[in-house]
Give the backbone structure.
Amino acid sequence: MRTVVVLGDSVGFGVGDEDHEHPHKGVGGFLHQALVDFTSYFNYSRPGARMREVFEVQLPQALDHQPDVVVLIAGGNDVLRQNFDPTDIYWSMYGTITTLRGRGIEVLTMKLHDPNKKIRLPKRLARLLHQRVETLNLIIDDVSGLLGAKCLDVREINIAYDKAMWHVDRMHPSRFGYHVLAQHFAELLSGHGHQVRDVTAPIVRPRSRRENVQWMMRMGLPWFLKRCKDLFPGVGYLLVLETSKDVARAVRKRRNKSAAPDLSRQPWRRPMSTSPDTRPETPLDIAA
């Protein structure tokens, strides 16, 4: 009997997969179907979980089942929080994977996509989010490579930013998107002692515009208001910080432009006499 366990946040949990007919949702459900001879599946992911919670809370629960494969998808909530701490993320992830690999457990990890390609944000906020995602992905890549975990880079999937891949909130994969992720995870495991099989892709009915608005009012807005208390103060502070940096750069640039030009450093410019009959004694050598 073999077991697969999923640890992480809302993406690991399966938020965005709205198929209520099947008990197992998201990437873990599809991956479990694709792994031959795997009879047990457990998912300890939780929406809102951060990397430290994975290490301190979810990992001990996973170890109780002596899993053969663990899927770790986390870090997105760390990126969105005020107290973003790359050092804490690094060591929490390091501790999680070290513990699992020390018991001979195969570990799968996943980098984040570029959210700016799916959500239009103010320039400064988009830049800040990009910097944080890049930092997180460097951590995931470094720890995975160091400890022998197999890492899936979502950005390298050729349909990663197709509309069908994403839920209406544009933050979580759709049911079809989870199926695609599970296929790529299965490919990482195939040829490494695990037999995999094809799983039929789900039929996804496109949402109408009215259904999208209804979902955002019923589900998206409450989530947004819930996170405002934690997210807005931090975002406001960071936006002020980014704005101050932009202002400082603009001031330095303006000062540099207003400074008198140093003709000695511009060989292509030579002072000319005010007399119209005066000409340079030698041709002007621009290449000099």
In short: The CA atoms of residues 123 and 190 lie 42 Å apart. Residues 266-270, 278-288 have pLDDT under 50 and may be disordered. Residues 209-258 form the longest helix (50 residues). The chain has two domains: 2-206, 207-258.
